[in-house]
Amino acid sequence: MIITNNDWVLDKYKDSFNVIYIDGSFKDVLIAVRDKLHLGHELLTHPLGSSVKPSETPYKSIIITDNKKNLSINSIYMIENAIITYDKFSKDKLKFITDKIRDDLKLIDLTVLESALNIL
Amino acid sequence: MKLELGYIFIKDIQFSDVSKVENGTLYVNKEEVKALILEDQNFKSADVELAKPGESVRIMPVKDVIEPRVKVEGPGGIFPGMVNKVDTVGSGKTNVLKGAAVVTTGKIVGFQEGIIDMTGNGAQYSPFSMLNNLVLVCEPIDSLKQHEHEKALRFAGYKVALYLGELAKNLTPDEVEVFETPTLIEGLKKYPDLPRVAYVLMLQSQGLMHDTYVYGIDAKQSLTTMIYPTEIMDGAIVSGNCVSACDKNTTYHHLNNPVIHDLFAEHGKTLNFVGIIITNENVYLADKERSSNWSAKLAEYLGVDGVIVSEEGFGNPDTDLIMNCKKIESKGIKTVLITDEYAGRDGTSQSLADADVKADAVVSGGNANEVIQLPPMEKIIGHVEVADVIAGGFDGSLHKDGSITAELQVITGATNEMGFNKLSAR
User: Fold this and answer.
1) How far is A51 from chain B (nearest CA, A)?
2) Interface predicted TM-score (ipTM) of this complex, two decimals
3) pTM greater than the 0.90 cutoff
4) Residue B180, class by beta-carbon neighbours within 10 Å (0-12 exposed, 13-18 middle, 19+ buried)?
């Protein structure tokens, strides 16, 4: 299952994967993933799966298991650390992003996601 | 495997009709370099500029920094599997234009950081501020996709570095350093009482603009493996990583990896430097598990007493770092980690996105969130229009006089996780 706020990911994979589109921020994606993890889903990709920092991009796509099992403490630990890390960065400057930069950032997010999708 | 590195010290760089090295000055024929870049039809224009230590020059956005080198004796050529054939390098003789570098700049995507200031406060933070730089400013054709643009720029850098390196082929080095790695058995016989130490070199490998190549192979597609230290000195590992300016490893860093140099310096004295394990930093968590399993397995197989682990990049690589640490420590092998910190502007926040009690020996490359002031420069080389985006739009603010208030993370090489910088923390 892909949880994303990147419409490029939604458009490209909505027919081949279970995609949950979040109409919100990077943090909204992290929170949505966290909520799923508490229901027993497990992280498959790292929630900070790019070195493009939360201060530089508003887009995030994360893959978790479709199935629910017992609570994965490792996954919870990782998402909580990601949320703490996210909160450290100032997001003020994201408002300066132009449409061209938005497209670039969506592409980077998509590409990083696909580096994992290629082996799923 | 034995390599002699011959250093030709470069104290100045100038444009000239003929490219040559004479009395410590690197003379460059600008037109030849431009023609070399424009062999690639992905570029519609190219310019070449000089940036010397002390000049009021800001280079941005920097993509890669490459040291010119040339094989003088021995198999293969510099950057095997990329520009030269995929022969095994790392033995024989290699000449180095020490003090010179090729810097590539480019606006591959619209938000890129990566500043090198040649003077002022910012120059204290980048090792590249002290080099005589040949800066490539290449404009792609309009239809070029980001992937192709990144690749074209990377190869332009290699080609120009090899072109300059070739000028050193027949020169007598000012200084020669010899690096030799014996076989495991020879090393064990020679230094039976010294602690055996390996180096785990982590390579960024997460996709477009986050990639590293080993003998031409994208590191994300490789299992954790071993490499001789001197192969790296001949360019077996190159950087395609354009994000996280402060803590990425440029090709220059790989060629001059300070962990390798320091381990060689202590080899046979205080320790036995057994070899290098290279491992990737992928996005998929199962890859992280697999790669760190292999790091631990290879360290165990080598029978080492300790390893040094160096990280690359921000965020998810912290997880690879900690996985490597925990799994290697669980084999009874001591680890020392080299990383940098995102500890908030006041330095009080949690530094890494992951942690473990076994990570009890950690060297910091500095806090990338620290705020610094960069004075205005008389000249900007690269893509001036990006300056507003980098400096004003993201991690800092560009003031009317051209000065910048920014976090340290905008400076190329500022908090390098190989320790190729001046910052640390206690």
Assistant:
1) 5
2) 0.90
3) yes
4) middle
